[in-house]
Amino acid sequence: MTLSLLYFARLREAFGQSGEKLDTEAATVEELLVELRLRGGAWAEELAAGKVFRVAVNQDIAVPATTLSNGDEVAIFPPVTGG
Amino acid sequence: MSGFTIQVQAARFDAGEEINRLSANPACGAVVSFSGLVRDHGDRENVTALELEHYPGMTEKALAAIVEEARERWRLQAATLIHRVGRLALGEPIVLVVTASAHRADAFAACEFLMDFLKTRAPFWKREILRDGASLWVEAKASDDSAAVRWQ
What we know:
Chain A is α+β, with helices and mostly antiparallel strands. Chain A has helices at residues 9-15, 29-37, 41-46, and strands at 2-7, 19-23, 54-57, 60-61, 73-77.
């Protein structure tokens, strides 16, 4: 299946892109994160266990067990700092 | 959501105009507003501007959910929530929350609640631009989380 990944703020800069289409078999957010960490470099560093970041699936805040479907929009971003 | 307005925009807003608009309602005895401004210090000193990034789509959705929650908790006649994005110079307004109710208690509480939840739930990110040209992302604050938690 294909996911639309989006990155924001500090993570957008660390990953050097604002988003990408990813062909993956990851069934959950946790599986997707495992796959992204395997890229090494900034991916392994920024998404390491213990790092604080948020994941949204189709614009709702997700948890590691949130399931993924073909065409989902998955955003990864730092804790928010608006207002 | 007649009377309930949410805007995410680059353009400057006129807080007085927004307050006057919500004040022109005979059922409202109380209008409370909060304006957030770019100040000269944050995580660092000598801040000259902020850059605000957001997640188009999710930001509006999150703000609508926060306003909806406020309407479930308090008796509100109207509310306006405006948040700017892009580069904002020192002293410029960033965010405006206006709440209108029959009585002040609901308007005060809802206004504070909207700000506390906006700061922890709406996907905006700030970057501080310093006088020497350096620019650095602002870190999320534990104090903002505890401010939001007290409403639960």
